[in-house]
Amino acid sequence: DAGVIQSPRHEVTEMGQEVTLRCKLISGHNSLFWYRQTMMRGLELLIYFNNNVPIDDSGMPEDRFSAKMPNASFSTLKIQPSEPRDSAVYFCASSGRNYGYTFGSGTRLTVV
Amino acid sequence: GESVGLHLPTLSVQEGDNSIINCAYSNSASDYFIWYKQESGKGPQFIIDIRSNMDKGQGQRVTVLLNKTVKHLSLQIAATQPGDSAVYFCAEKEPSNTGKLIFGQGTTLQVKP
Hints:
By secondary structure, chain A is mainly beta. Chain A is built from no helices and 11 strands. In chain A, the strands form 2 sheets. In chain A, strands 2, 4, 5, 6, 9, 10 and 11 form a 7-stranded mixed sheet that branches.
């Protein structure tokens, strides 16, 4: 099992550009969670899906952020337009029936 | 005043000693708890979990204790090694069927050789 796979590992972009982060879940897991981690705010839950359906997006900071889960194994988090304050490490995690999360290695986003 | 960043509690221990990391959780109805370890540049990694109908769980060199009366969770690491240096997070599962976990702010463990 390759675990949760995120891409890219690092992303540097200019303010105003669109950024798309990708996540591949562990096979058989049915819940997907996007987190953002910063020094200021720690680990924040942005949105999570259960069986491909968004359950709670109250953590999504603004309309500039959107997330999709087009199938049971893949999700994207998009920021458009990006701003310097979006710079953070973004993690996705997937979960199966036992509720334990498995995290990906994260995408470090830098918006300049 | 305005926060300038999270001030994570730090625990500094000597290699070979036992470490105890504590966590207070918020919801008395939470029914599942997990400890995660996060090393620099990596995602959080599962260490050990415990359900609310238990008060103790054990793994390899790690023990989790749950005190529901005071809503307190602890992680004990025996014979701490330099490789244990990391940030440790506790997490509680909301009492629902969706599996949403709420994470604490974390504790930094520093192991001195």
